[in-house]
Design brief:
Number of strands: 41
Helix content: under 10%
Shape: elongated
Largest sheet: 7 strands, mixed
Strand content: over 45%
CATH topology of the largest domain: Immunoglobulin-like
CATH superfamily of the largest domain: Immunoglobulins
CATH class of the largest domain: Mainly Beta
Radius of gyration: 44 Å
Number of helices: 1
Length: about 475
């Protein structure tokens, strides 16, 4: 055995006896080899028995043309009886005469290459359980195929559905259904079609890929891309609240609705963060075991009316970590169809505001600061601070009083601590807080940023808001504007 760059060999040659054809079941003559685009072809000459210089070349325009030094394309092998040139992955341009020259003698083999083209563009078919489906494979070639097989395969299982030998059907599957298979030449051209009709599609049919194999000889097989059956489900998500706004410590209900003519076999609930990209499974429901929660504080309910299905997930006593996430409901029908819908859970934050951002007054006058708030939970505590710097650090602020447990404690100790008054009113989800500063001083105006801090009984959020105190007369005595 050997490989050569220009395919020249020195061998023992005694007598040259002609040629043979291997791997070809349909030679036109003894001096011809026929194959198909994409396959390999073996050109075989009998091996000489005496030392002579030998060369192999392709004939082009009546001249010998040496073959490329490409072992991926050409492989030369010598056995005790034969010299074999293998040409791999044939193209149309490989067709022609190939000559072996031994001493002063030569012998030619005509390589005939036939074109082959698949004409399919479907690799997936959508079908419902119980339906009948037709699959069709089409190819174009001038060379009749030796064998055609339709089969399906899955997890190491290969099940032949139909087989044709020289155009005659030899076998087809028998599984209790009437499965029809046809193969014929189409029209007046070189187009061939193979048909497969599968009635009463079952769940088991979806696990296979459906394949056609066209064989021109034992070493020349053409296989098209597999066709997969995908389950078609009449499924549609229906409108439901999204996003969902709620407050901390409340029970939060997330509702998904969908319409389907079939029963889902599995539902998975997950939580996803757009910030951290973390995805966490919260629970899974299936026919056999019902709902199994993966975290604490989750309740699941599934109900249906006709084809409308409601999925309700309740997050009990929701904490801060439950908010600002997307909650996904993924509905499965077997392993072939699933659909996902997400709901964003957004926290309802406290809202603190005032009717004016600036209060104007003069030293010695009384000043009133009024803040309003809206939130579902009552106030837990209130703190008042002031600063000479807007949005300054905490150590630049000074306490002037705080309220907690229905008791207000002033921090301004001048005038016996009676220079500050506090009042709070609360209603159903809203309220008002008033801070009165009596007999104002120059120091009150120099620390002109008055800030309120509120915390609410859900312990989830605290908020702040600032009002500026300015003098309403600007001159050298009271420069506080």
């Amino acid at each position: 055995m050997g490989m050569v760059s220009v395919l020249y060999l020195t061998m023992s040659i005694f007598l040259f006896k002609g040629n043979q054809v291997r791997g070809n079941r349909f030679p036109d003559t003894k001096q011809s080899v026929s194959s198909v685009v994409g396959c390999d072809a073996d050109l075989i000459w009998e091996s000489p028995e005496k030392d002579y210089r030998m060369s192999i070349a392709k004939i082009k325009n009546s001249k010998e043309e040496q073959l490329d030094n490409n072992i991926k394309k050409y492989w030369l092998e010598r056995t005790p009886r034969n010299v074999i040139l293998t040409i791999k992955e044939l193209e149309m341009k490989d067709a022609g005469y190939y000559r072996i020259t031994i001493g002063s003698k030569h012998e030619d083999i005509n390589l005939i290459v036939t074109d082959f083209q698949w004409k399919n563009n479907v690799t997936a078919k959508y079908v419902r359980v119980g339906d009948t489906i037709d699959l069709c494979w089409e190819f174009v070639t001038k060379r009749p195929a030796d064998t055609i097989r339709l089969y399906r395969a899955a997890a190491g299982i290969r099940q032949v559905l139909a087989r044709w030998e020289n155009g005659n059907q030899q076998a087809n599957i028998a599984d209790g259904r009437i499965i029809q298979c046809y193969f014929h030449k189409y029209g007046n051209g070189d187009t061939y079609r193979a048909y497969l009709t599968l009635p009463n599609i079952t769940i088991d049919d979806f696990k296979y890929e459906y394949i056609i194999e066209v064989a021109f000889n034992d070493i020349c097989l053409k296989t098209e891309e597999p066709v997969h059956l995908k389950r078609e489900v009449n499924f549609k998500w229906m409108s439901s609240p999204n996003p969902v706004n709620s407050t901390i410590k409340d029970d939060v209900k997330l509702v998904w609705k969908y319409d389907s003519s079939e029963l889902a076999n599995k539902i998975i609930l997950t939580r996803y963060s757009n910030i951290t990209k973390e995805r966490k499974q919260l629970g899974i429901w299936n026919f056999e075991k019902g709902f199994q929660s993966k975290v604490e504080g989750i309740k699941f309910n599934k109900s249906n009316t006709n084809q409308e299905v409601n999925i309700i997930m309740t997050i009990q006593n929701a904490n801060k970590d439950a908010f600002d996430h997307f909650y996904e409901c993924q509905v499965f029908y077997g392993v072939f169809f699933n659909s996902v819908s997400g709901i964003e859970l957004v926290p309802v934050l406290p809202h603190i505001y005032s009717d004016t951002m600036v209060v104007k007054s003069r030293p010695t006058e009384d000043v009133k600061f009024v803040w309003h708030f809206r939130y579902a939970f009552p106030v837990l505590w209130v703190r008042f601070r002031r600063s000479s710097v807007q949005n300054g650090p905490a150590n630049a602020e000074y306490d002037i009083g705080h309220w907690h447990n229905e008791t207000f404690t002033p921090k301004l100790t001048d005038n016996g601590g009676k220079r500050i008054e506090f009042n709070k009113t609360e209603g159903d989800g809203d309220g008002q807080i008033t801070l009165s500063l009596l007999n104002t001083t120059k120091d009150d105006f120099s620390k002109k940023y008055y800030i309120i801090y509120l915390a609410f009984k859900d312990l989830g959020f605290s908020e702040s808001h600032c009002i500026i105190l300015k003098g309403n007369i600007c001159h050298s005595v009271y420069p506080y504007c």
